[in-house]
Structures are given as C-alpha cells and as structure tokens.
Amino acid sequence: MPKSKRDKKVSLSKTAKKGLELKQNLIEDLRKCVDTYRYLCIFSVVNMRSSKLKDMRDAWKHSQMFFGKNKVTMVALGRSPADGHKDNLHQVSKKVRGEVSLLFTNRTKEEVNEWSTKYTEMDFARAQNKATFTVTLDPRAPGARGVVTLLSDPVVCKEGDVLTPEQMAEFKVTIKYMWDAQSGRFQQMGGDLSESALESAGESEGEDDS
Fold first, then answer.
1. Which domains does the chain have, with CATH numbers?
2. How sure is the predictor about 122, in pLDDT bands with cuts at 50, 70 and 90?
3. 174 within 8 A of 46, measured Cβ to Cβ
4. 84 pLDDT exceeds 90?
5. Which top-level group of life is the source organism from (predicted)?
6. Which of 32, 107, 125, 133 could, after both became Cys, cross-link 129 (CB 3.0–4.6 A)?
C-alpha cells in the first residue's frame, strides 16, 4: 500500500535536538567536579535573581555551581550505594529535591558557612511575596528651599502584606548539606530541615525518587 503524503512529518526547526547529548555532558561535568573538589554542598536561594547569581558566581570563581536538572544530577551522583560515583554520594542524591543547587568547592566548612551567612542582597520583590517587616517613611526637615509634602508617617508596607514588584526583597543563600570527598561524610548544615544532623554511610535508602 503506498504511503500517504499527508503522513509525512515536517520539522519546523532547523536546529537538531541535543537533549540526550546535553544530559550526558552534564553528567560528565558533575562527575569531574566530584573528582576535582573536596566538598560538595547543596544550597537553596531565596528570591532568586539572575543578576545576583552572576555576582555570586563571580565572587566564587574558584568553585563550581550547578543549577537545575535534578534528575540528571541524581543519575550523575548515583541513586544507591551500588551505583554511586563515590562513597556516600547517594545520600547527596536523595536530598536533590525541589529548588536546590550544587556547589563544588575546596573552601573549608567554616569559610562556606561564613559566606552563606553574610551573603544577603536587597532587591525588588516579585508580585505575591510577603513583607517580612513593616516599613514607614519618616517626615524629614526640609532644606532651605524644601517643601513639606509628608504630613504624617505613611506606611509603605506592613509585615505579612503581599508585596508589589516595586517593593523590596532579600536575596539570601542557605547551605543545607555538605559532603566531604575525603571522608565520605554527609552532614546537614542548616535550613528549616527536620532530618538528623548527620547521616552515616550505612543508612538505608528510605525515600523513593519523585
């Protein structure tokens, strides 16, 4: 039976798909970083902004950061002790959930903690963010040619109010976990987490992939 010309598939794009190739390259890059750096940290970012992330990358050029592609990351690190790239890396893989990122570095635990604690930047909030504190405008003494325009203390926003994009937000980095390549130790660092502070290499996997 002759083929119908109607069944012919026509691609509207001249660019060939490279999804599998990109994923394989990412897996190779992640494993190379595991072999190169001593520490691997899982961190999260509150009020993420591309400009702030660029500044953060520039400040930590001596290290390597990866954002997104959680499932590919889990494959690269290993989902079980049997297929883990290194000892206890499957524990890291289990915590790659939601909006988290990876930091490979040779900086010490104390240096990473100090950086994440102090690194905060103010930026414009996005719509639907909530105010963390109340902001008011205080009337000021006018200069020689000043004109009084504030007759009271207007409230810019109240704590708990939903903000508009013109109001401010805090860009903040939180280090949640750290893995040591030399000892294989996987440790909780901070964040609003309920797991135990230290997970040993002998722990069994009790969490399925989502």
1. 24-120+172-192 (3.30.70.1730)
2. low
3. yes
4. no
5. Eukaryota
6. 125
CA pair distance 209, 133, nearest whole angstrom: 38
Rounded to 5 degrees, φ, ψ at 6 are: -70, -25
Q: What distance lies between CA 201 and its chain's CA centroid? A: 25
Terminal Cα-to-Cα distance of the chain (whole angstroms) = 46
Which positions ≥6 away from 99 have C-beta within 8 Å?
Answer: 44, 45, 48
Residue 23 φ/ψ, nearest 5 degrees: -65, -40
Closest CA to 95 of 30, 175, 176, 38: 176
In this prediction, residue 150 carries a pLDDT of 55
Average pLDDT of the segment spanning 91-105: 91
The pLDDT-based confidence of 199 (bands split at 50, 70, 90) is: very low
165: which 2 tokens? 């994009």
Q: Which amino acid is at 180?
A: D
Inter-axis angle of helices 70-77 and 19-36, to 10 degrees?
50
> Judging by beta carbons within 10 Å of its beta carbon (0-12, 13-18, 19+), is residue 136 exposed, middle or buried?
exposed
CA distance 41 to 107: 11
Asked if 65 and 115 count as a contact pair (C-beta separation under 8 A), the reply is: no
Task: Say what the pLDDT of residue 72 is.
Answer: 92
Q: Which residues pair with 122 in a beta bridge?
A: 170
Task: Using alpha carbons, select from 38, 65, 52 the residue that is nearest to residue 178.
Answer: 38
